[in-house]
């Protein structure tokens, strides 16, 4: 799972706590908890919290049930490794596009003898055929890690580096991202 700082595991709890602060969102001009048809179905139950591959299987099975019911899943928390089983579930019928806002591409290969880690979910999803790299845009990528971006470029992903954001401007980035993902199913 998570290296360095494992605070992301508290993400779901934090999001649930925010709703209690107040229901109205001034930017959206709505009360999302009341105006949207949404439900908190709780945390994905894990058969073992110590076996990452088993956790991924549990996540994929849970998201597959949600998708099969015709529901669009919104997932919060965990590290980036959970993206792979989520993409396997939502892209099972048809590869999805991706708008990925992050500092890292997350397209690294096996690390420390493990295929599954938080630095490689996008690569694994492309190799599994559930993520369409030509309909993928990665925004905000930074750092001295050119070797970690190679897969993104070689597979056909579009990478917008952090240094490019101020020059392009947010409206242009949004327009470019929409153009890249097109009208097909897209994971954000």
From TrEMBL:
BP-aspect Gene Ontology terms: putrescine biosynthetic process from arginine, via agmatine
GO molecular function: agmatinase activity; metal ion binding
Keyword entries, A-Z: Hydrolase, Metal-binding
Superkingdom to which the source organism belongs: Bacteria
Pfam families the UniProt entry points to: Arginase
Keyword Ribonucleoprotein: no
Alphabetized InterPro entries for the sequence: Ureohydrolase, Ureohydrolase_dom_sf
Family: Belongs to the arginase family.
Protein name: Agmatinase
Highest classification ranks of the organism: Bacteria, Pseudomonadati, Pseudomonadota, Alphaproteobacteria, Hyphomicrobiales
């Amino acid at each position: 799972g998570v290296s360095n700082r494992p605070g992301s595991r508290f993400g779901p709890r934090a999001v649930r706590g925010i709703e209690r602060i107040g229901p109205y969102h001034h930017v959206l001009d709505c009360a999302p908890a009341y105006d949207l048809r949404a439900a908190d179905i709780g945390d994905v139950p894990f058969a073992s919290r110590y076996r990452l591959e088993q956790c991924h299987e549990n996540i994929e099975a849970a998201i597959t049930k949600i998708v099969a019911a015709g529901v669009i899943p919104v997932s919060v928390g965990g590290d980036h490794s959970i993206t792979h089983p989520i993409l396997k579930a939502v892209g099972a019928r048809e590869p999805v596009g991706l708008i990925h806002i992050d500092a890292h591409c997350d397209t690294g290969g096996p690390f420390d003898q493990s295929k599954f880690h938080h630095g490689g979910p996008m690569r694994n999803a492309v190799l599994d055929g559930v993520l369409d790299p030509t309909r993928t845009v990665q925004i905000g990528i930074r750092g001295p890690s050119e070797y970690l971006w190679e897969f993104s470029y070689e597979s056909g992903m579009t990478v917008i580096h952090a240094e490019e954001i101020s020059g392009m401007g947010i409206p242009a980035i949004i327009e470019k991202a929409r153009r890249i993902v097109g009208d097909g199913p897209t994971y954000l």
